[in-house]
Amino acid sequence: MIKPQIRKDILARGKPEPKNVPWWGEPNLGGWYTEAEIDAAVRAIRKSNDWSTGFGPNAKEIEKFENAFAAYCGTRYAIAINSCGTGLDMAIRCLDLAPGDEVISPAVNYKAAHLAIVGQGGKVVFCDIDSRTLNLDPEDVEKRITRHTRAIFPVHMNGLPAPMDELLDIAGRHLHPRYGPLKVIGDAARACGATYKGAKVGSQGWLTAFSFYSSKLMTTLGAGGMITTNDPAVAERLRNIRQFGGEDEWGSNYKMTKIQAAVGLVQLNRLDEMNRRRREAAQRRSKILSGTAELILPYEPPNCEHLYYVYSILVQPDWTGEKRDKIIAIMSEKFGIVCSISNPPTYLRWPYIAEKCGVPRLAVSDDVGRRLLCPPLHPLLTEEQELYICASLLEAIDMIKAGA
Q1: pLDDT digit string, tens, across residues 216-258
Q2: Which structural domain, as residue segments, surrounds residue 387?
Q3: Which residues contact 392 (CB under 8 A, 6 or more apart)?
Q4: Which of 48, 302, 323, 399 is the least buried, fewest Cβ under 10 Å from its Cβ?
């Protein structure tokens, strides 16, 4: 905890640099680049500064990046693509969904996962979450399986791996009448480099999609993604879909560029260090905020490595809704700190999802959506910046308690 007088002294000094712009949470935070990434990009450009070479889709940099990423995750294959959203679309396409086929997915989510299911003609079956982890609740998953279920679609939420052993066990015990065991497709957009029971996220399940968007744990010049799998047939199909469908099916241009791959190789080599720094930043924050009665801080289960892509705080139940919203408003308007709510149930946040998928009203998910509060976190935050963020949060709470 920060003592009240020290907190007031921190705030009296004013906002540290950068002063004149809001400090945003996800999705506006940028990546972490060094001269090594710049050098890699320049080399890739110079190597293509020739009419006979260009930036072709089969560039060695892309293959090297794919091989390195597969080795890092412990999978046989990795397919580089232009975004994680594309990857989710491609993964669901590989299910070959028929009308009425169902895919179980957490309601607390970003809309990309549910758009992928809808876009491929499937039915989203919303599932509730564990309020401590914000990940899929395996018990609720099993209750929602029907003869039409084709896949379970967990998100490794905000940097914390989903309970993959339990989900894979459930998938293996429930057989679709035509396709057999259910597929498990992971969304690791927010968990690149995380470990689950000693294994890297992306090594479990049928397919896993990763994001290299600007704010993510590693980035490739603002966009990019990767899909991992151990299935040779689906790996080949993904490569075909990525490049206009190959000879046999529909596809489009979902390729990553040569320069992005060159930068990605450098970022991958730095990923563990960047994640270590992020974990240290989160742990410092937890130490500062510990003991704050109004807040429930992020939870890390045994045998999991939380990467805190988003630092997910829950306010206590008596601070649900309006009081939580007041905290967010005060932090933004008075102190220039913009918190995200990552994420409310998609059917409450996006009208299109509600229209296409319905509004089931899941007790835990709906409650979490009204209690989430996510201040910005980045591995490069200075001690001064971190203290200012925490002081702003604590001051906002005290102002509301005093009648603000």
Answers
A1: 999 999 999 999 999 999 999 999 999 999 998 999 999 999 9
A2: 4-31+271-401
A3: 11, 331, 334, 335, 337
A4: 302
Dihedral sign computed on CA atoms, order 388, 389, 395, 396 = positive
Q: What is the pLDDT of residue 7?
A: 86
Q: Do 173 and 315 belong to one domain? A: no
